Write the structure tokens for this entry.
Amino acid sequence: MNRPADDQWRRPVPSEDGADAEQAAAAYPGPPPAVSPPPGWHPEVTPRTVPPRRLPELDHDAIDLAEERADRFTNALGIAAGVVLILIACIQWRT
């Protein structure tokens, strides 16, 4: 696949006398000159944040009690739904 657009990327044919290295060095102009930043310039500084406030103490006994109540309610609701489904199945089966 030789396209005209690819010719610029093709490696040059080496010469017998080794002048290619000198020609390649002369063709590369080097990196662009470094430009100093204006006087007084500095990176943007972010303000320091205040440390987070202390969280209030937790009442672990109240949390445990609420968890137990929620667990009992969930179990009771599941049992009630199961009983209703069994009753519906029995009614459907009889008819």
Summary: The CA atoms of residues 55 and 63 lie 16 Å apart.
